[in-house]
Amino acid sequence: MATLRLEIVTPDKLAFEGDVESVVIPGSEGELGVLPMHIPLMTQIKPGEVVITQNGKKDYLAVGEGFATVTQTNVNILTDMAIEWQHIDETAAEAAIERAKSTLAGRHDLSEEEVASVQASLLKSLAQLHVRRRHHS
Amino acid sequence: MAANTRDIRRRIKSVKNTAQITKAMQMVAASKMRKAQQLAIDGRPYAQLLNKISAAVNEVHGDEKHPLLQQREVKKELVIIISTDKGLCGALNTNLLREAAKFDPEKTLFITGGRKAAQWAARSRRNLIAEFQLKDTPSFVETKVISKMAIEQFLDGSVDKVSVLVTRFVNTLTQEPVVFQLLPVSASPSNTKDMEAAREAGGLDVEFEPNSLAVLDALLPYYAHFAIYRAVVEARAAEHSARMVAMKSATDNAKSLIKDLTLEYNKIRQASITTELLEITTAQMALG
Fold this sequence. Notes:
The structure holds two protein chains of two kinds. By secondary structure, chain A is α+β, with helices and mostly antiparallel strands.
């Protein structure tokens, strides 16, 4: 069976590299299932869940914002966060959400930049929590 | 004679103190270096992929020009210099600023990150439009301010080209100043290979989602932000490496100086003892 070469990279590491049968990407226009021989595509991705099927087994990762490029044989995902669901720390994510919410609610002297960065981290934490809860069993 | 030995003793003591200080600085730099190098090396796959994507986008969108891709005749150039805040890191800043001096002062504006570059710009009366202070471990938010300013300058037409001058970290012993073009975003020679790879793998018919403009709007500024962030991370790795090496050679020099001085001191000491003995024996012989 044809496979796709998948690479997920974050600024601090190569989070995933391998040949997979399919991958689901959280595109900005909605979820996007990619199989081998997909037409070349480039999309923005939003914080959410990447589902990888490798050797018949599924693996779930929480990812942050970024970009994905798809060619017939390769999928490259460039994102600022990628955590496998087993490694997501639920309490830490919850704490981060609380912190972000209170920062956004309490302070009005934040610059545009700061608000954007807090909001981005809020979305990332929410994505983590979402992925973790879905597969926690 | 006695005064001379005292002088030498005093010098040995002061050199020893210096050696202790440089040794401590070497240790500090070494530990910071390890962290900074790790950060620089771990970030490379990400930077390469981003380069590849940007090169591919550039290739695909050769005709339909996004503002950040537009090549204009270069009347004014903006140069972003990333230097260190502190000295004592060998020839790092000297080499960097020698490159900076090559830009035509009439046609070049400067943004500096790091105190040394700012001092240089002020001293040599360059056209400095902004200076930024960077923390020891650079954060993305912090460096984004710089790239944002550069993008604004480029978009409103004040400058036609933005370059970055930074010390690239090659390895612990080698750091070299490099200049790369930030804006307009272009495929530099280093990623022509990537571009070919992208072309082969994907062909030129790439679909964009939601659409090409939205992707470019998000990708290109991000590319610029990240390029600056990378530059700063690499500069830090280079700085700490250079400082560690400089401090190590300072410590070594101090040690060999101590050795020489001790030898000298012992020689004088022995010589004076010998003379004293001689005097005593001669005196005894004269008496006896």
